[in-house]
Design brief:
alpha/beta, nine-stranded parallel sheet, two-stranded antiparallel ribbon, 11 strands, 37% helix
Amino acid sequence: MKFGLSLPPIGPYSDPNALAALADEAEQAGWDGFFIWDHVAYFDPVQPIVDPWIALAAVAMRTERIRLGPMITSLARRRPWKVARETASLDLLSGGRLILGVGLGEPAERDFGTFGEEEDPKIRARKLDEGLTILDGLWRGEPFSFQGDFHTVRNATFLPKPVQQPRPPVWVGGGWNKHAPQRRAARWDGFFPLKWREIISVSEWHVIIDYLEQHGVNHGAYDLVQGGLTPGHDTAHAAEIVDPFREIGLTWWIEQIDPWRFGLGWQDLVTPAASQKMHERILQGPPRP
């Protein structure tokens, strides 16, 4: 099992320089992945937040080993050909370390509706699927055409290709008990099921894995990703939390590094004390046995 962390790049970490320095420390602390949220207008009250592609480019320049990426990007509100350029460039810059997390994106009324974009989840899901098809086609560096309900590509060739071939890994995020994102995930490279502020149990994972296998997932080349919280000061307890998921074959543990786990209210702005707690948990390292 590999160990990554995911954090909202807000408050002091909305500065790409500070975020890149934090990623450097995370790499030195032994983490395997450094992932950040991707939002345009998420927080109320407004929090400062950084553009993910600029921030991840800074992270790539300050690190050497750690995997990186958005977790997740709302592909339905982005031009997929623009994302194809950004991700291919980021994969090249990082030496093939990009993992692309995708999903519908929430909250729709803020990240989409604020700018007059589509809020309906079924339509956004169709846009997401078209966008993924276009990404996969353009990443191959060969002439590619596509005609869908929302997007058109006419004989486009994108070079340079990403370092990782046939593509950078694509993880699909979505509701842990919803079949639509699970079917979507089965067509790509990993599934990161989400259960807001709760951990998905081993028994729930067995149901998820059974469904993915019914839709063609081969565990040998597929990532199963669990998000959760572990105490950095108690390695024995951390191992007790993580070990059951390792034993059933999950490949990644993503530690949720956010200010709310350290007592901050959802409506509160990030305080120096909360950001310091986030920093301390990262420096304590992953829950590796």
